[in-house]
Specification:
Length: 438
């Protein structure tokens, strides 16, 4: 396999230490060299082209970036897009999801997951924190080549159901996931669909296996009420399904979901949580203390009426964040640059007015997502030494190219104009998506 040099008028590397890069890692007239699937050189185009004279040369128009990292999705729900436009608010929506799931066949899960992976790749996303609830969804995503983690979901169990059935099912799904090339993780779904015992046991099982974890936290006001008082629409749903959950029998715990999850061993540097909409300042400080990053999903929260995540606060306080599209069942697209625009606009609305806003939102869909997944090169517990989200020596050779203006601030250009404009996606040095010019 010969090396390939990719050059472009603007290369966003996210690594300020690269030759010719500015403080945000941008190289005007830059080049990246990929050999055997890994980045072996980055710098000014004329230098890397001269240095790697025998390599193949691809000169791109537009802005060349690392492949994007989606910090929260359920690719297997690609076929549920009609639910995102149903107008249902959070609790009736999740009840619909629970019902609908029972009618979906193995073949449908596989096909839906395959189309989700395809939509991610063609929008420039090369790594996904993907929650997998049904085993047939695992193989198509592994085959797609997408990086990231398939988090096997533990969904819906009280103490008895966990011990008698779900623990075995989740263990089996973890075995299948770990036998595949894509990295496996564990996802205890939430505080309102699992008993305390079931939640803690699933976390422990993942840690015994050395896996990272990812869970839903503080998504809706209904969840806040459920944890604090053991009442509300989510208590009604659990009772209706027949889950005997502690919050209901105890009349709530009089604290926030974040405090509750911490008590159930659910936070840590090997965990990232999705949503974090209803996290107050103390909750956010606790998440930072535990080293737990938050995958923010602004568009999904809006569609389900879950509220507005305090993204300006997360940014101002220096919390580690990524962005997630969530699934097509609650989101208009799997395009992370569309998500980034919504997140940027919400931060502005919430009063974040520093000039680094576009750059920081950009970081959330690249290096921030890599941090969420333990794929930022730190080799954390449950992670690997693989690095994504930055074009830097030794990182995986995953690139995206966007047809956006190259004569202005590249972060604003990508966020304002990048959605739907991915013209090429490269995975480990191989093109997996190409769109010809118009
Ligand atoms: Zn989710």
């Amino acid at each position: 396999m010969t090396a390939t040099v990719h050059t472009a008028p603007v290369v966003v590397t996210n690594d300020p230490l690269n030759a010719g890069a500015d403080e945000f890692g941008v190289i005007r007239g830059g080049g990246v060299v990929i050999d055997h699937g890994v980045i072996v050189d980055v710098g000014p185009a004329h230098e890397v082209v001269a240095k790697h004279a025998s390599a193949k040369h691809r000169d791109h128009a537009g802005v060349l970036t690392p492949g994007l990292v989606n910090a929260h999705s359920h690719l297997q729900y690609a076929a549920y897009a009609d639910l995102a436009s149903s107008g249902l608010p959070f609790s009736p929506w999740i009840a619909q999801m629970v019902q609908r799931r029972m009618l979906t066949t193995d073949e449908q899960w596989a096909e839906s997951a395959r189309s989700g992976a395809y939509l991610a790749l063609r929008s420039g996303t090369t790594a996904v924190a993907d929650i997998v609830t049904d085993i047939p969804a695992l193989a198509p995503i592994a085959r797609s080549g997408l990086r990231g983690i398939s988090y096997v979901e533990a969904l819906g169990a009280d103490d008895q159901q966990w011990d008698e059935q779900r623990a075995g099912e989740v263990g089996n799904a973890l075995d299948v996931a770990m036998a595949q090339t894509r990295t496996a993780g564990i996802s205890p779904h939430s505080l309102y669909t699992l008993s305390r015992h079931a939640f803690t046991q699933s976390m422990r099982r993942g840690r015994e296996l050395g896996l990272r974890a990812h869970t839903h936290l503080a998504e809706s006001a209904d969840e806040v009420e459920f944890v604090a008082d053991g009442t509300g629409l989510l208590a009604d749903m659990a009772n209706g399904i027949g889950w005997k959950l502690d919050a209901i029998s105890c009349g709530g715990f009089a604290h926030t979901p974040t405090i509750e999850m911490d008590g159930l061993e659910g936070l840590g540097a090997d965990v990232h949580v999705a949503h974090g909409v209803h996290c107050n300042a103390a909750d956010r400080a606790l998440l930072r203390e535990r080293g737990t990053a938050v995958a923010i999903c602004v568009r999904s929260n809006k569609i389900l009426g879950a509220g507005r995540p305090p993204i300006a606060d997360y940014l101002a306080e220096g919390s580690p964040i990524g962005l997630g599209t969530d699934s097509l069942a609650s989101s208009p697209s799997l395009d992370l640059l569309e998500e980034a625009r919504a997140a940027r606009d919400l931060a502005l609305l919430q009063g974040y007015d520093l000039p680094d806003l576009n750059a920081r939102i950009w970081q959330a869909i690249t290096v921030g997502g890599a941090f969420c997944l333990g794929l930022d090169g730190r080799d954390l517990p449950g992670g690997t030494a693989d690095q994504v989200g930055a074009l830097t020596l030794g990182a995986l050779g995953d690139l995206a190219v966007f047809d956006v203006p190259t004569d202005s601030d590249p972060f604003a250009a990508l966020i304002d104009h990048g959605a739907g404009e991915c013209v090429a996606t490269v995975l480990g040095g191989t093109f997996v998506h190409r769109r010809s010019g118009r």
